[in-house]
Amino acid sequence: MAKHGFPQGTLEMMIMKVISSGSHHGWGIAQKIHLLSNEALKVEEGSLYPTLSRMQRQGLIEGKMAPSENNRQAKFYKLTPLGKLQLEEESKKWESMADAIARVMSASPESQF
């Protein structure tokens, strides 16, 4: 497990999913993940901003300073073409893995052997 409590790569995938619909600033990304998860997931700043920086260095996202809703300067992030490809690939892997885990977890005790 990664420091932020999510399996390795999961936070990056969720960030890419959130910004795939348009650019968002860091706090907005964290809020959207929180809301979309029915408040089950909380992304802390200490995990979010280093992850965003790393993703920028990897060329998955790009950031641009602009005024936020409250007229303060904030960095807004959007997916790059490489990020879109990565999101597609990671989403397929995630769906396959989640499906496999669900099959194991829903198996009756009799079907385990």
Description:
The chain is an alpha+beta fold. It has one domain: Arc Repressor Mutant, subunit A. The protein has four helices and three strands; from the N terminus they run αβααββα. It has a three-stranded antiparallel sheet with strand order 1-3-2. A hairpin with a 5-residue loop joins strand 2 and strand 3. Helix 1 crosses helix 2. The radius of gyration is 16 Å and the shape is elongated.
The helix count comes to: 4
CATH class: Mainly Alpha
Number of strands: 3
The run of helices and strands is HEHHEEH
The level of helicity is 40-55%
Mean pLDDT: 91
Number of domains in the coordinates? 1
- Please identify, by name, the CATH architecture: Orthogonal Bundle
Instruction: Please state the overall shape, judged from the principal axes of the Cα atoms.
Output: elongated
Q: Label the structural class.
A: alpha+beta
Low-confidence stretches: none
CATH topology: Arc Repressor Mutant, subunit A
What is the CA-CA span between the terminal residues? 29 Å
The CATH homologous superfamily name equals Winged helix-like DNA-binding domain superfamily/Winged helix DNA-binding domain
Largest sheet: 3 strands, antiparallel
**Main β-sheet, spatial strand arrangement:** 1-3-2
Short recap of the structure:
The protein is 53% helix and 14% strand.
